[in-house]
Amino acid sequence: MPINLLTKIKRRWRPAAGSGENVVIEIYSKPDCHLCEEAKAVLLKMQRRYGFQLREVNIADDERLLAEYGARIPLVFVTGQLVCKYFVDEAAVARRITLGIKSANKKSS
Asked: What is the DSSP letter of 60?
């Protein structure tokens, strides 16, 4: 029985050793925000490489967040620290992911 290509890829793909699966990235955004959509697309691409958890926070659902950030979005937080505003700096996010991985590895040792 032949195995289809997608099944082969799923079997072979694993996050790299020391991957970012314990790293959480949050993007603060709201609907109808073109910069937010662009930032999410970049983060989704990076997620495939690093394996981090991606959470989207819709600031329009929280009056306090909406008042605090308004149009100053998207914001990208890596392990709770603000790393990017308006645009995703892939190098900065990658550095922060790497620090998160090293920190997680030290804790598990």
From this structure: G
- pTM value is 0.77
**pLDDT tens, residue by residue, 68-95:** 999 999 999 999 999 999 999 999 999 9
With beta carbons less than 8 A apart as the criterion, state whether 106 and 91 touch: no
CA torsion through residues 61, 30, 70, 26, sign: positive
- Strand bridging mode 53-58 / 24-29: parallel
20-108, what's its fold?
Glutaredoxin (3.40.30)
What is the residue extent of each domain of the chain?
A: 20-108
Are 59 and 36 in contact, with CB atoms under 8 Å apart? Answer: no
Q: Do 94 and 43 touch, CB atoms closer than 8 A?
A: no
